Task: structure prediction
Amino acid sequence: MSLKDKTVIVIGGSSGFGMATALTAVELGAKVTVTGRDAAKLEQAVSDFATAGHSVAGHVLDAADVDSIAAFFEGVETFDHLVSMAGGFMGGGFLEADFKTIRRAVDEKLFANLQIARHAARKIAEGGSMTFTAGSGGRPHNASGAIIGNDAIRTLVQGLAVELAPKARANAVAPTWTETPLWRDMPASDVEATRKQFSQSIPLGRTAEIEEVSSAYIFLMQCGFITGQTIVVDGGLTLVS
Result:
């Protein structure tokens, strides 16, 4: 399935996996809209696309705010493909982590994406798709709320796949830890230590490149006969841990 002249929305497309996915989509001829919660970062991202010779629309959207989601989709006529990067990360188990931290991790993964899906379902075109972001790696005792949220995304796309069929599809991508701008506020030495730790555990002996992960989102948009699935992009980590 060609993306040429298709309308693609990337929620959380101002950096990292989202920006890489948006860039590939626009290079394949799609009409792309990216969103971000930080207006300044979003403006810079749109400018970066323009510098690279690509026209991309940008809209401020806070995926944690129901009203913001509703307002955004109210302004959307129809679209072909939606990619959502909504969701955060956390560390700590059920007893160790702060209750609000656990609750926020679940909310940012499941309930934010559920709201996105419910609004997007009204505007999705025939033959379209929604692709959400889960995650792999971590265990309940050290990433409690995030694990629940990731598992919930897998369940969400299974349900959406049936409810949207045959008009549209729903899938998810589950990357493991990857060095992205998400970690920009972490000391460089800590990021490097984390990268080395994962590299020693991952069977392929390294962490992923951003473009390797973003290619999974592109695949799920282009393959018209896959739905209800979660593609794990982790270099084999879940096979050995």
Notes: The CA atoms of residues 201 and 237 lie 7 Å apart. The chain has one domain: 7-240. DSSP finds eight helices and seven strands in the chain.
